[in-house]
Design goal:
The chain has about 475 residues and is of the alpha/beta class. It has a 5-stranded mixed β-barrel with strand order 1-2-3-4-5. It has a 5-stranded parallel β-sheet with strand order 7-14-8-9-10. Helix 3 crosses helix 6. The protein starts with a strand and ends in a 10-residue tail after the last helix. The structure holds flavin-adenine dinucleotide and nicotinamide-adenine-dinucleotide (NAD).
């Protein structure tokens, strides 16, 4: 096999593997190096997202939600069950099968596109050489015309709280529980804390979520965050805001979690503790001497708007660079870079990256919040539509939540769409497309939405922005 490639991608997660595939589609010779090892020692492409993030968490969210609905909702539909029970082992096996299928699928995609997969460690050296050390220990020096760094991120540790892989775990550990903990604590009411807290809460764990900030979901629209907090608390998630964790220790009777809130020092004893306080860029042993690649103060690889590192023909994409740590953001960067390398147009619209939290109800948004627009002094108008007024949502027994559109007061351009409710993560795609095309709320108003669908909520919210909603009173 040749040791010379047009493009070498280091990292085979959702940023790296699409970069490799697109580069191969652009008729370049490509290798993709990935060092991921599963707990059983097997190598797998797909990175955090496919192996220990997006996909396994959604598999468990789906299983636990089905159980929860069978327990609490089926009777409303007149569906009678003689007792409902669940089996964590089956849920975990199903999850494992989905993950295996998806990660092995990447190898099939590589084969089809002509990408050379290399399992092991990659290290960038000066002059776009890459030192590759296979999982078998064999070392080779490869040469590339372009290198794409896509090394991803890792969980942020918390001082005073040491992972033991058993009682005190990170998000990967929390996806692997073999049984439902009776008492669970999650540190951090961020996306991971809410999604994984929901999984285990639905299956019966008494779940406390400790959040250092006083404000719940500060990155989301305020009205959305308020509605979300109300639903999560109703579901039994004990979310304690302004609770800063200082230490945790494993004792005989459980994990003793120490935290400080407005009332002073507090202690909580639980069976399992999940630390989900954010992620940090992963660049350990990635860069050799004299590469010219620079890390910023927080450890992210410095890049410009087009993901150029500043070192000639070395690019970086995904969680290891600035911007939201999201799989779809990394994918767009990877594909964009692969097109730029081939001399084509490559562009990521950072103003239209959707965020989704896969709880029930789901939460999704794109663009700016009312709070951000107020702070910027921009005049805007809003239109909202509650799912309680949607026939389809009511038929689904999913009338909680709303869709809100924020548009410029003068030009009517859509500035943000914020949804909490059924399938919000799917509905947001229309909002992203609208923003991508710089649509006005009138454009959405004049777009026919099938009846009865959840998407009518987006349509009616757009109409409400001009007080022309049909299915709710206009105020
Ligand atoms: P990664 O996925 O971390 O992949 C990097 C890869 O590079 C890894 O396989 C790593 O082993 C490899 N690597 C690193 N250094 C080297 C090296 N020197 N040599 C060889 N290989 C190397 N995002 C969403 O958009 N939606 C979700 O629903 C979602 N859910 C999540 C749930 C959880 C529990 C977690 C933890 C994250 C979730 N995320 C989600 C975030 C998402 O997983 C990340 O944004 C995404 O994986 C980043 O992709 P990446 O390719 O940049 O990095
Ligand atoms: P996060 O940044 O979303 O939330 C971490 C939370 O922990 C914050 O609210 C923070 O204030 C809190 N915190 C920090 N230190 C604390 C302390 N000492 N005590 C109590 N609380 C503390 O991070 P995350 O939930 O770990 O997720 C990491 C990344 O993974 C995110 O950037 C997210 O984008 C990504 N992710 C995305 C999805 C999705 O798209 N659905 C799902 C999971 C993860």
């Amino acid at each position: 096999m040749s040791d010379n490639f047009d493009v070498i991608v280091i990292g085979g997660g959702p940023a790296g593997y699409p970069a490799a595939i697109r580069a191969a589609q652009n008729k370049l010779s490509v290798a993709c190096i990935d060092e991921w090892k599963n707990r059983d020692g097997s190598a797998a492409f797909g990175g955090t997202c496919l192996n220990a993030g997006c996909i396994p968490s959604k598999a468990l969210l789906e299983s636990s939600e089905l159980y929860h609905r069978a327990l609490h909702e089926f009777a409303t539909h007149g569906v009678k069950l003689d007792g409902v029970s669940f089996d964590v082992e089956t849920m975990q096996k199903r999850k494992g099968g989905i993950v295996r299928g998806m990660t092995q699928g990447i190898l099939t995609l590589f084969k089809g596109a002509g990408v050379t997969p290399l399992t092991g460690h990659g290290r960038l050296l000066a002059g776009r050489k890459v030192e590759f050390t296979g999982h078998d220990g064999a070392r080779r020096i490869l040469q590339a015309k372009h290198v794409v760094l896509a090394s991803g991120s890792e969980p942020m540790p918390l001082r005073g709280v040491d992972f033991d892989g058993e009682r005190i775990v990170d998000s990967w550990g929390a996806l692997e529980f073999a049984a439902v903990p009776k008492r669970l604590c999650v540190i951090g009411a961020g996306v991971i804390g809410l999604e994984l807290g929901s999984v285990w809460r639905r299956l019966g764990a008494e779940t406390v979520v400790l959040e250092a900030l006083e404000q719940f979901l500060p990155m989301a629209d305020g009205q959305l965050a308020k509605e979300a907090a109300r639903h999560f608390r109703k579901q039994g998630l004990d979310i304690r805001l302004g609770a800063k964790v200082t230490a945790a220790k494993v004792e005989k009777d459980g994990v003793h979690v120490s935290y400080a809130d407005a009332k002073g020092a507090q202690t909580l004893v639980v069976d399992r503790l999940i630390v989900a306080i954010g992620r940090r860029p992963f660049t350990r042993n990635l860069l050799g001497e004299g590469t010219g690649v620079v890390l910023d103060a927080r450890g992210f690889i410095q890049v410009d708007e087009q993901c150029r590192t500043g070192a000639e023909a070395v690019w970086a994409v995904g969680d290891c660079v600035r911007g939201p740590m999201l799989a779809h953001k990394g994918k767009e960067e990877g594909v964009g870079v692969a097109d730029l390398i081939a001399g084509k147009y490559g562009h990521v619209n950072y103003n239209a990256i959707p965020s989704v939290i896969y709880t029930a109800p789901e939460i999704a948004w794109v663009g700016q919040t009312e709070e951000q627009l107020k702070a910027a002094g921009r005049a805007y108008k809003t239109g909202s539509f509650p799912f309680a007024a949607s026939g389809r949502a009511r038929a689904m027994e999913a009338g909680a939540g709303f869709c809100k559109i924020v548009a410029d007061a003068a030009s009517d351009e859509i500035l943000g769409i914020h949804i909490i409710g059924p399938m919000a993560g799917e509905l947001i795609a229309e909002a992203v497309l609208a923003m991508e095309y710089s649509a006005s709320s009138e454009d959405l108003q004049r777009t026919i939405h099938a009846h009865p669908t959840l998407s009518e909520a987006v349509h009616e919210a757009a109409l409400a922005a001009d007080k022309r909603a049909i299915d709710i009173p206009n105020r």
